[in-house]
Amino acid sequence: MRDPIVQIIRRTGLQPIVVTAPALAELGTRLAGLEHIGLDTEFLRERTYRAQLCLVQLATPAEALCVDPLALGDLAPLAQVLTADRVVKVMHASRQDLEVLLPIAGLTRPVFDTQIAASLTGLPAQVGYADAVRRFLGRQLDKSHTRTDWSRRPLSAEQLEYALDDVRYLLPLAERLQEELERLGRLEWLAEELSELAEVRALSVAPEDAWLRVRGLRPLDPARERLARSLAAWRERYAQEHDRPRGWILDDSVLRELVLQVPRTLQAVAELPEMPRGFVKRHGAELLECIERAQVPQPPPPMPDRQRPDPVRSALIKKLSSISQAVARELNLVPEVLATRRDLEQIADGRPDGALLRGWRRGVLGERLLAAL
Q: What is the pTM of this model?
């Protein structure tokens, strides 16, 4: 039976896109009765802290269609489906989409992420959707509209076709991946990886943890780490409150210089490289408050030596890496899927909370690394 929503849309001569509340309500009712749906989004995030949801693409075993959130505003009927436990949402590289949908629909779950599943079959951790479709389904996708401004209306037929391709093959791709992982005996691995997508905290940045996303900051002495936490948390809260990209508030390079140089006066802040004009006048006092709260000694302690890594630690990480790569070859996995360098560093540093000491990774690799220690 053909999708009644699409029949209505096509009789009006429009593209397969839902733009009215009655059509969305009818679509929500139909989707709620399915076991699996394909899901993707298009969004814009260049000028705001929070991404602007511009398009939602959905696939059923029979049809693929779009929902226009800019025309609808209220997506409640769709939100009920996205949060329904009985409907599995099949997505590819889902984290950003889940983050975008979170304030609109709540936590989208349960999710079958085809990128995660594909990586457990032996493909790279960041394998693209088009590549996975080509490898498993033999279909070549057009990626000519990658840089489309999805907030502009009207959308052309070509743009909608491109958007629909992003969900059209999700369900058959998930089926093929499920079959392959069952053959390999790795469905439990997949279930464990997917369970992490049900953690709301993984989809948002707590201001206190924002410093971890600033490149080039570590390693830091304890005092500068306190300062990095304080400055990054201030920037994150300001960006959230004013809905502006954090880089527009203060660039990472400038924040890094604040942490490394620890200026104590407004003049010293203004003299930092790349410090924007006018920023010190508007926010200099707030920055000095962050520095004062961090209680960095004066003069600040010397920075940890980045040029001379501990040779014993380096040799140990190299040894652990050799073991990890050997196990990855045995399992026909890309090494980074099994263990990242950061994972290996955590083992070398004696940290018991790393990914390699939990779940399936501990069984296939973690125990061997511990034995090597």
A: 0.86
